[in-house]
Specification:
heterodimer, A: 10 helices, B: Rossmann fold, Coagulation Factor XIII, Chain A, domain 1, 2 domains, seven-stranded mixed β-sheet, six-stranded mixed β-sheet, 26% helix
Chain lengths: 283, 410
Amino acid sequence: MSIQGQKIRTIRPDSREEEGSITAIRHLMGEIWIFRSHIWIVFREQFRSSYYGSGLGVFWSYVLPLIPLTVYLLLAKMRIFPNFEGVDGTVFITFGVTLWFLFSGCIQIPISIIQSRNTEGMKTAFPLSAAIVSGFAQLLFDTLLRSTFVFGVMILTKSLPTLPGLLLPLVFLPAILLFVGMGLFLGMLNVVYTDISRIVAIALQYGIFISGVIFPVSETGWLSKFNTFNPFFVFIEASRSLVYHGSITNLYNCAVMVGLAITVFIFSCRLFFIMEYRVRGIS
Amino acid sequence: MMQNDTVLEVEKVSKLYSRLQGVTRHRIGRNLIRTMMGRPSQPPGKLSPGEFWSLRDISFSLKRGEALGIIGLNGAGKTTLLRLLAGQFLPDAGEIRILGSTAAMIDLTAGFQMSASGRRNIFLRGAMLGRDNEEVAANFQEIIDFAELGDALDAPVSTYSSGMLMRLAFSIMVTMRSDLIFIDEILAVGDFKFRQKCLARIRELRDKTAFVFVSHSMQDIKSFCNHVIVLKKGEIVFKGNPEEAIEIYLGLATLEEKNVVAIKTEIVGPQFTNEHVISEVEHFWCDAKGNPISEIRFGETLYFRAAFKLDYSPRNLILGVPVYAEKGECVTGFSSELQAERIEITPMQKVIFKLEVPNIVLNPGIYLSNFGVADGPEFLYRRENPTLTVLPTLSRFWGTVMLPHKWRAL
């Protein structure tokens, strides 16, 4: 039975439970597609209104994401951070920090959006998946802005990337899958165990220093023994070696992380899919 | 399987609720762990301390072209039921089957980007209903014509009054053509003219759309709904035609305790007893035999009984009962001042009075009142009477009173 091809929608306590992981991912993608207009409008309005009423207005949206990079750039220029592994210190740091913000953002955005939009989602039946994607739109914008800045620094310091560096998205893809998966999983846990978001924030504050972001891991002493298990380090190291040296030096570790990324992403998407409407209204 | 033209079926739906977030989190936590381990969720089972059923075994169905009213006292579970139907969260037991697209108007500001203009919010809200920009653009003129926001359309919605927000939200919702529309009490915030316009639009949509209404306005429920459900503490206590449903609702509505305190204090005004001169006071609405009553049917004879003892002989004793409607307006008053003969009483002797009001013309509703005893301009006693509920006998009524009348062709 249908109205112009529409199916009967059934709402039950165990709704979505019988769906498998692939169906869950397809459903989430479908939601994002259906609400694409909304995602775009929300991103645009938040972008416009973030600094509404301030003297410089939207200018801040372009400047603020670059501030951390300029701080590290300044420290590198002041020789507080020397050149590493034959790469100019300014490039090393700005490149690492840009990747760090991208990867850590992939974890933090789902956590904060599930927490902040859960009640609103309950009032509108609006899917949280679409809200999370509109949050990622801002992260994407900031990353593009920072990448442009890094590329400018590379040109100025004559540390141009190698040609295989164009394959960087192939490293990014599994990294983003892994960190988004972690974000969805931790976001759901955070609804029940509300300390999770704070623990994650603290872990990420320390994590930047043990992930080869600001200085090479060889400088981190005994902590460097854990690098094999640190996905941030593995993906940042792979990205850096691809861009600077034209090949991935930690290929084996990278392959393991790709497998982990796919597993975590599939598991978390299904968990998110099943739990989304059960945690509604809990903030 | 849903029957022909049925767009909504609700079968034994229940919803658990706890005012303690920790209890809710604990239950969801157990559910989350089971899901992580790949196990199916379990039925709620034994309730934890602090948990209760906000809805229990709710079943009904709705066909295209029908309008269902949901009435009940505060906390009866009306909005929770509406949210479940709108798919805003999942039930803890039972099943809801929906055929076609839905739109809900439950929270006025939900989904609005407050810093954006009304114009942009039309697209935003449209997108939230799953409509793309082209579809919203095609209906844009109709939406702004209906909303009548004028120049305010380009102002941020944070500057709108609640009435303006409601107009915008309602315009978007009804223009986007859904098969099933859920509307909470929020129509009440619109002005009279726009409210009539909304109701007229709902009437126009009736052929193609089914409605579920939550309202405290018995007039709206009577005018628009084919069927009405009366909820009490999360359970259906009546399901059927609007007239009977309203009668049952009014029977239930002896006002919740907190409302009694909040509303009565505001409506019936200051309470006073001069304990030095008056004592042993009793007063209540009653039947012809003097037995206390709390309900009466329209058209019946109403009685009131009062007894008290004064310790002096008043010069000009006046007895009065001002009557107020539920919303606070003074409907009428029954005063001994209008009688030709003066009331004489003997000091220190308990006196009993009986008031008779034949053929009561108050429309169905809840009425509050005071009993006052005065000596000329000086009040000796002024205290509220038990609430009186007038039950309907007429199929239609308007306003607060229904005066006897007859239309005749000349």
